[in-house]
Amino acid sequence: MSHKQKQFAIQIGLIVFGVVFVALTRFEQRANCQAVNCVPPPFYEAPPQYSWLANTIVTVKIDDTWTNSTDRDFFKEGIEKWNAALNCSGVRFVDFSTQHFTDYNAAPPDNTMYWQRKSPLGVQYFVINQIQRRLRAAIVPIIPGFTNDYNNSFFVYLGTHETGHTLDLGDCLASNNCQFSTGHSIMGDNPSLIPTSTVGGPCSVIMIR
Amino acid sequence: MPINKSTYFVLILVLIITTLSVTVFKSEKSSGQRPLQVPTARSVEDDLKRYPTAEYDEPEPSDTSKKLVSKQRQKRNNDSVFAKPGPRDEEVAFAPEADFNFPAFPLNVSDTIVVAQVLNGSAHRSENKANVFSDFEVRVDEILKARNSALAAGEIITLERVGGFLRYPSGRKVLFRLVGHGMPEVGARYVFFLNTVDQDYRIVTGYELSVTGVVIPLDNSAQFRSHQGEDETNFLNALRKAIKDTLPQQE
Predict the structure, then answer these.
(1) How many structural domains is chain A composed of?
(2) φ, ψ for residue B200 (rounded to 5)?
(3) Residue A69 sits in the same domain as residue A38
(4) What was the pLDDT predicted at B18?
(5) Exposed end of chain A (fewer CB within 10 Å): N or C?
(6) Overall domain count for chain B
(7) A109 and A90 both lie in a single domain
(8) Coil, strand or helix: which one is A123?
(9) Residue A127: which of B6, B29, B90 has the nearest Cβ?
(10) CATH number where A174 lies
């Protein structure tokens, strides 16, 4: 091989290396959102506020005044969907045993999420550091009058939706320009449009990284 | 083996492109993944400074009329959404379901809209001690919409919002707040969307008319960010037009 040919081969090698390097570094797995045109739900606050620290194991305790174990199991089913989600947070929800609450205003222990039968609907956050605003614990109050409507899917919806709020996901509403009507996100406010996906809807998962 | 100038050139070019790929272009790509994430105008630290502090054992006003008004405010704030903080908690926050479910100009859910300057702020505990709320005295500069026809420019009114710091006798301070709800800054001018409650007003939302002439939303939700950084004059003109358009047309 002549000197000129060697130089040419080196140059081609460098160019191929550059192209492959750029291609590899710019490729990224987009969860399940590659197939849909997402307008994802908004964060409550700029991330990573009001969310569990990465890889937290969260103990879930469910109010025993839901005396029907089937109701509690539906909440559990909804919450556990986040365990299956490829959301990169590493957060896992475990336990799901019942708890009898004598004081509904008491703060939960560390890394614990209470599901309580009380009003108003929303999520209560307990934060150790005001600046970072990562969760130490949370309470999810569910209105006592709620029943498992929508063909027994409402409590599953609530399980996933309210738990999504503990991952800093806000509500997906028309008023905040979120693509709410198509059932892409479990953070939508219409329980009849529950995403068929097992991970809370592809447009929710994309936000949790 | 000697290396040609052209090979050096290709080497340098490849190095530049690969470096840019993992620095400049990478960060552009990351930010592009979250189209709704417009940076907020204020840091968390700045937001926290705006929250007034309530004393755990707040003394009652000595003036009888002020005492009556204070009692009335404390009583109407008895409905608390906050649980008790744990021993290490610095903040207890509540995110109401489907909060801010209204447009950027919430004309239909506000009975009063004013331009006003914040004169002072203070926080208090509710009568049953379960809640913390803040009130702000503001001077009305301009009335854009009013339920109370007696409201006049120059008048000083009191605005109210849930949340505030609570200082315990030990000196420990805990913040109670609704997620996404900001507190107005003393000295700043705002457009306030309000609802009348007794002789006072509750803040629905607001926009700061900053000294730089641009608009900064008081609250954190995507629809409000559409006005962030907007020129004050354009913003007020758009608001006045929106209010006018909602009024019944005269035959």
Answers:
(1) 2
(2) -110, -170
(3) yes
(4) 79
(5) N
(6) 1
(7) yes
(8) strand
(9) B90
(10) 3.40.390
Residue B168 falls within a domain, yes or no?
Answer: yes
Checking if the pLDDT of B26 tops 90, the result is no
Whether the pLDDT of residue A93 is over 80: the answer is yes
Residues in chain B with CB shorter than 8 Å from the CB of A27 are none
The interface residues of chain B toward chain A in range 134-193, judged by CB-CB distance below 8 A, are 175, 179-180
Specify the higher pLDDT residue, B109 or A16. B109
Angle at B188 between CA B185 and CA B191, to 5 degrees: 100
Helices (H), A27-153: 69-84, 149-152
Q: How many residues does chain B have?
A: 251
Using CA atoms, how far apart are residues B175 and B164, in angstroms rounded to an integer? Answer: 6
Instruction: Assess whether the previous peptide bond of A120 is cis (omega < 30° from 0).
Output: yes
- Per-residue pLDDT at B196: 95
Average pLDDT over residues B91-107: 93
Residue A57 has pLDDT above 80, yes or no: yes
Range of the domain at A82: 34-205
Planar angle of CA B87, A123, B92, nearest 5 degrees: 30
B33 in a structural domain: no
Q: What percent of chain B has pLDDT over 90?
A: 73
Across A162-182, average pLDDT: 78
CA atoms within 13 A on the CB side of B12: 6
Selected residues 6-65 of chain B with any CB under 8 Å from a CB in chain A: 6-7, 10-11, 13-14, 17-18, 21-22, 25-26, 29, 33-37, 39-40, 44-45, 48
Question: Do A126 and A163 sit in the same domain of this protein?
Answer: yes
- Residues A40 and A5 grouped into a single domain: no
Show the domain range for B73. Answer: 39-246
Residue of A nearest to B23 (CA): A25
How many residues are given for chain A?
A: 209
Q: From the centroid of its chain, how far is CA B3? A: 63
Q: Copy the structure tokens of residue B80.
A: 């608390």
A17 contacts B84? CB cut-off 8 A = no
Residues A22 and A120 both lie in one domain: no
Q: Are residues A25 and A75 in the same domain?
A: no
Q: A86 and A25: one domain?
A: no
Determine which helix (DSSP H) or strand (DSSP E) holds B30, and give its type and residue range. helix B24-32
Residue B27 covered by a domain? no
Same domain, A11 and A59: no
Is B96 in CB contact (< 8 Å) with chain A? yes
β-pairing verdict for B91-96 and A122-127: antiparallel
Q: What is the CATH number of the domain that holds B178?
A: 2.40.50.120
Q: Average per-residue pLDDT in chain B?
A: 89
Provide the pLDDT confidence category of residue A2 given band limits of 50, 70 and 90: confident
Tell me, yes or no, whether B226 lies in a domain: yes
